[in-house]
Inverse folding.
């Protein structure tokens, strides 16, 4: 356990940022929560964190501005921080490319400049999908290996992490954590924001996306938000051991074949058919389905074709946390929560899978 310290957390109101802020505060650290507007910091369980002194101190700023948009006493407080945890990022898909550049690239450049100017060690939250649209194993020590980013978001995160790597080479103390697809809590499946793949799952289960380009052996790496927050917090508090490391915060991948099989267990769900991208034609879809494909499905298309697996050797050696749950059992937990809260319709029992047919250990107590 590190001595009590002051930590500046950017993006403190985001899904991961709020959980990191809560953990650091609970451990007795003074947290400066950088927010774009003075709002609540809501945890994944739906509870808002109290204001200082019981909770984090809110700072109103903007990572895209010099000195993070801070001035006066707030600037002095931030400049005296012992660590910066940079969680702020634009993660929604389908936005104009310049918006990703502004927040994910320029924002990271401003944070790096702030850290260098005030000599503050930096924990940068990136994404495992800087690996781009490729197959095979993506290693933690890789960054730019000539890969093709799957979308404008991935390009911006690759560029942002490159800025961090360059600053590290020039003397800034840094550690990088790369989450995969952040989803609900490990034990309950609960999630505050139904983003990332959740809207796609909703379209599929409602029968609004029946034919999707993809490969059944493609892998979706879903990681619990609490595991990601635990790892980022651990890196922050044990920075002396984490300095210079890049760690994949990833789960156990689910193939599209397993994904489809799990959806088929729920009587109320429709199951999409995945077809090879070379055989897919959006123009051949019915009008309504084509509209959903263009607005939503196409934004995630590359994730349904990648047969990539993330090496997490460095993370496993560093963390004191057990490996996160994954595979079909974790996917069922996520779907059960979606049904419980009405996101995927009214709750209904799924069709039990015979124990001998299971390969994910979900039948164990």
């Amino acid at each position: 356990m590190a001595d009590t310290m002051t930590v500046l957390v950017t993006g403190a109101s985001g899904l991961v940022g709020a959980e990191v802020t809560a953990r650091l505060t609970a451990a007795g650290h003074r947290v400066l929560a950088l927010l774009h507007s003075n709002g609540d910091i809501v945890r994944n369980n739906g509870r808002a964190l109290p204001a200082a002194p019981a909770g984090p101190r809110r700072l109103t700023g903007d990572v895209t501005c010099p000195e993070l948009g801070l001035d006066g006493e707030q600037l002095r407080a931030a400049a005296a921080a012992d660590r910066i945890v940079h969680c702020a990022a634009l993660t929604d898909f389908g936005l104009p490319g310049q918006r990703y550049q502004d927040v994910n690239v320029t924002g990271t450049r401003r944070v790096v400049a702030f850290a260098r100017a005030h000599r503050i060690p930096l924990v940068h939250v990136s994404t495992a999908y800087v690996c781009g649209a490729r197959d095979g194993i993506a290693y933690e020590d890789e960054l730019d290996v000539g890969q093709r980013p799957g979308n404008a978001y991935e390009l911006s995160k690759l560029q942002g992490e490159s800025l961090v790597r360059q600053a590290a080479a020039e003397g800034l103390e840094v550690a990088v954590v790369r989450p995969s697809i952040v989803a609900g809590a490990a034990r309950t499946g609960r999630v505050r924001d139904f983003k990332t793949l959740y809207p796609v799952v909703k379209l599929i289960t409602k029968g609004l996306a029946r034919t999707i380009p993809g490969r059944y052996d493609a892998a979706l790496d879903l990681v619990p938000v609490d595991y990601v927050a635990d790892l980022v917090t651990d890196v922050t508090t044990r920075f002396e051991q984490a300095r210079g490391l890049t760690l994949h915060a990833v789960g156990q991948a689910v193939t599209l074949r397993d994904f489809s099989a799990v959806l088929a267990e729920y009587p109320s769900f429709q199951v999409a058919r995945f077809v090879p991208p070379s055989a897919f034609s959006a123009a051949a879809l019915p009008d309504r389905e084509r509209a959903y494909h263009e607005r939503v499905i196409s934004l995630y298309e590359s994730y349904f074709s990648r047969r990539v697996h993330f090496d997490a050797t460095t993370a496993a050696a560093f963390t004191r946390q057990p490996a996160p749950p994954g595979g079909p059992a974790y996917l069922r937990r996520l779907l059960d929560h979606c049904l419980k809260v009405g996101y995927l319709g009214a709750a209904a029992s799924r069709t039990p899978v015979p124990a001998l047919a299971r390969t994910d250990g979900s039948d164990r107590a």
Summary: Residues 353-365 have pLDDT under 50 and may be disordered. Residues 198-220+254-310+324-347 form one domain. The CA atoms of residues 23 and 177 lie 16 Å apart.
